[in-house]
């Protein structure tokens, strides 16, 4: 109890939270090593709270199959983990559609800016979008960025390397 209290103070959380973290770890650690390794190979840390239901399902699958912990080999553990756990969305999209490649941090940031602009201008008539965008940019530059002088910019519309839903085609990546 004293250790949990000290850890809670250091983490800036409640003592109960620390005890829950420890309980989650102990529950995950009670699984067979082959299952833990199979989950880690898929990038899943079973000691996280969100995997409590998955641990219960894995324990149930182990009990239903009649296997004892020592009898589970890597292939069986992989099968159990695959049946119980759903692959994270990022991995699922990558496997399902090999025509697209992951975005770099800068590309993601650029796409977020585009999406915010698109969202902000959604309900503006098409012939007013540019003037509304420029007025907002001028105010942002003055109020937030501190620009007070004249800025001349030439805008040349061009195609993006990203799709409208923010994915980069494999041929554009090369």
3D structure, described in words:
The protein is mostly helical. It folds into two domains: 2-86, no CATH class; 100-173, no CATH class. The chain has nine helices and two strands; from the N terminus they run ααααααβααβα. It has a two-stranded antiparallel ribbon with strand order 1-2. The protein is elongated. The chain starts with a helix and ends with a helix. Mean pLDDT is 82; it is low at 90-96.
Brief digest:
With 174 residues, this protein is mostly helical.
Structural class of the helices, strands and pairings?
mainly alpha
Average pLDDT value? 82
End-to-end span in angstroms?
Answer: 56 Å
Order of helices and strands: HHHHHHEHHEH
What is the number of strand segments? 2
Main β-sheet, in a few words? 2 strands, antiparallel
Layout of helices and strands:
Elements lengths: L1 H10 L3 H15 L3 H9 L10 H14 L8 H11 L4 H8 L3 E2 L3 H16 L8 H17 L22 E2 H4 L1
Antiparallel strand pairs: 1-2
Helix pairs in contact: 1-2, 3-5
Characteristics:
174 residues, mainly alpha, 2 domains, two-stranded antiparallel ribbon, elongated
